[in-house]
Write a structure and sequence with these properties.
This protein is α+β, with helices and mostly antiparallel strands. It contains 13 helices and twelve strands. The relative contact order is 0.05.
Amino acid sequence: MSIYLATFGKLRYIGLARVADEDGAISSQEVAHSSRWVVLNTLRGLEMGLLGGSLSSEQEEKYRSARLGDGEQNRGPEPMLQEVEIIRYADAEDIETWYQCRSDEEQVLLRAREILLDHSLNMKLVDVEYLLDRKKLFFYFTSEQRVDFRAYVRDLAREFRTRIEMRQMGVRDEARVVEGISPCGRPCCCSYWLHQFTPICIRMVKEQKLALNPTKISGICGRLMCCMAYEHPVYSELWKDLPGPGAKIRTEQGTYVLEGVDLATEHVQIRFPSGRVVPVSIAEFSDFRDAVLRGEEWGDEPAAPHAGRGIAARSRQEHQGAERPERQEKNSARRNERYNMLKEKITLEEHLARREHQVSEETETRRRGKSQGRRETRKGPLPGEARMEGGRPSSRRRYDDNKRRKGPGRSYGRGGE
């Protein structure tokens, strides 16, 4: 007796089928030299399935111990891995019936969506599936909350004259059923070979030094792409003896930033305080950290000067002055001005008096500028204009001037004449 692997259903359930080696209606030699499409008896009913190869005892144990489907949204009472029975090989009539079911499902889905509009339920119909004998019709939908679809199921049963089964799924299962194209240009892994969704976090993306752009690391389901976990074990082994990505080593010479690792050469990329990125072997990283903390040079990269006063500070100022002379000159002028102000000792009363005199001069300058602008724009004073000390006409005088301009019989203010 051999164990063969079989897949069936739009959600790609996995079945373990027992095939007799010598006796029985179906033998292992026939399986190897005949079509792989078979008619299966599953927990859901009579279905068309695709038969794979035989499993060894280790492979069978691995499949049985794998908790397929854990962590996903409820798909129904049927488990993803189940024991199935092979009824017969699929003949031409069975294959024709299967294709006819797939063709009728398109019309059923359109009609079911029309009926859903009358019920105004907060759910999205993704796909439908007929069993081979048409005794059941499965409806797959997504929803963010629980939905009371009892009335909707009654209308569906009345319309299609069969037993209705509703299956709620998550966004990942939706991509599996739809069988879309992933950003890499190939069909989604979950739609043709992946049977288990691995939990993926943003740390996996950071450890592989990938761009943290949601449009580049997300699949058509809106979640992080499953392929992020394919190379993660190798990167985890490299990061085992290293601090996390983006870690910083703060020294008196500056800050060293750990940017990422190179999988091919097994080196870590370190950004030095000078801005240069230098590869450091992972095996030598501990020595590199101790060296930079002591202020020593590493490789051909010289140690950065200490940030402080003395010869190193003056040489840094001279270097900056050679590159940016204008900026250096302005900074020197500001420093000299502040130094002279601090050097001159004055009392608090003198300081307040100087400040008040400076503010008054600035106010007078602004007032003169505004007055000059008004004299340039206005051709002459208005009739009867009178100004007060603040430079603004009184409200009553302004009202009388407006009334004269409007003319008799056109007053819109107080006490119209």
